[in-house]
Structures are given as C-alpha cells and as structure tokens.
C-alpha cells in the first residue's frame, strides 16, 4: 500500500489499514526511525489499559515476598 505526502507534510492512512487496526479520526500514531526504515505504530488512547493483562500475574505477591526477603529475619 502506498500514500502520498502533501506539501503540508500530510498523508492518508489507507482504509484497509484503518479497518484492520480499528483506527479513527482522533487516534494517534507514533513514527519510529528504525535502522534507516520508518515504522508507524498506533498509540492506544489509554496506554496503561493497553498493557493490562500482559504481565505474568502475581506481581503484588512477588513484590511482598521480595520485601519480606529484604528485611531478613526479625
């Protein structure tokens, strides 16, 4: 897929890409330069919510265990 850059530096995201990634008029894109190439990455409206559920789980339990170990025997 291709798009053209206007004199004002604007371009159009192809409709197929917008549908596939559920992009709308107020969504933001991040442009990343990566070894001489350009990647365009959609930025979620709420980046914290986007990462929810991506971890291993049990983070609170591990944190409390680490703190307990740091304190040592009392």
- Output the helix-strand order: HEEHH
Tally the helices: 3
Low-confidence stretches: none
Could you give a short account of the major beta sheet? 2 strands, antiparallel
Structural class: alpha+beta
Structure description:
- With 74 residues, the protein is of the alpha+beta class.
- 0% of the residues are buried.
- The longest helix is centred in the C-terminal third of the chain and has 13 residues.
- Strand 1 and strand 2 form a beta hairpin.
- The chain is elongated, with a radius of gyration of 21 Å.
- The chain contains three helices and two strands, in the order H-E-E-H-H.
Please outline the helices and strands.
Elements: H1 15-20, E1 28-34, E2 37-43, H2 47-51, H3 59-71
In brief, what are we looking at here?
The chain is of the alpha+beta class and 74 residues long. It has 3 helices and 2 strands.
List keywords for this structure.
3 helices, alpha+beta, 2 strands, 74 residues, two-stranded antiparallel ribbon
């Amino acid at each position: 897929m291709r798009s053209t850059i206007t004199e004002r530096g604007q371009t159009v995201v192809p409709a197929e890409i917008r549908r596939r990634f559920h992009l709308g008029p107020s969504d933001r894109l991040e442009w990343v330069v990566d070894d001489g190439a350009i990647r365009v990455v959609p930025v979620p409206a709420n980046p914290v919510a986007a990462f929810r559920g991506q971890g291993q789980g049990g983070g609170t339990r591990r944190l409390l265990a680490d703190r307990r170990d740091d304190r040592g025997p009392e």
